[in-house]
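Dear colleagues,

As part of the handover before I leave the project, I'm documenting each prediction I ran so the next person doesn't have to rerun anything. This entry is a single chain, and its sequence is reproduced below.
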Amino acid sequence: MTSIFELAAANLLSPIILSFALGVAAALARSDLNFPEAIAKGMSLYLLFAIGFKGGASVAGHGVDAQLVGSLIAGTVLSAALPFVAYALLRVMTRLSALDAAAVAAHYGSISIVTFVAATSVLDAQGISSEGYMVAVAAAMEAPAIVAALWLVSRSTPGGGGMSAELLREILLNGSIVLLVGAFLIGWVTGAEGKAEIDAFITAPFKGVLCLFLLDMGLVAGRGLRNARGTLNGAVVAFGLLMPVIGGSFGLLAGALLGLSTGGVVLMMVLSASASYIAVPAAMRVALPEANPAVYLTLSLGITFPFNLTIGIPLYVAVAQSLLGG
């Protein structure tokens, strides 16, 4: 088995991670390097479409079975349950208010699709196969965490957050969810023939676009870290490093019980360990406008995201290999 340190070293020296590191360094150095908003948005749309379409095409070849259904159910349950774990940890470890703790907890029940994509790239580089339908599990894990966080707020604060029509629309029609699910369905309907038609578009440029997107994410994360000085203390940062490991452990247990392949277990761990910085922040702006975005955005994007990219993914791969082989 390749050691964690060897995997981490290989991952750290990959173009994907180095692109993210360049963005962070440029932001911390106050460089004027910047991506126009339209280009950054276009790259995210491309990545969501490509990963969704390839996942759907894979399901078309695999077929719907009990394992797929079980994986969807497990992902939904994890997304709804992990915010309670995160909230309890935050209330014990930090002095965050109940409102801010609930807002942060929602991010750690939902998922980072870019972390998921980076993990699939690492698995491909290692020659480890995985179930293509895991992208459907990713889509299923976007929303339940938000509902769980609102329940936590309603129980812990007077007049806490509720499920308004505006928020329900934000959750169900969030652009990332719509595109990911829509592309997945297109890939599922068109299958291998459809994938062959656009393979040159969704496969060959994929890693190059991912590098540029992570460069932009590095810029965003670096600026968040620079501006959040004094906002995040040691206990809050410690949570941002501990929670992914706890979430990944739940994902490991679920994946092993479902009988997923080694690659599938890794992806379930990654989904459970990652923290949303796209769908959930948008929902929190509507549902909990009083919550402090400097806390939840900097934690998810500035602490947990780089931890998962550099250390987490190699750790999850090594653990899954040691326990399951492959």
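The first helix runs from residue 4 to 12. The chain has a mean pLDDT of 86.

All the best with the project,
I.
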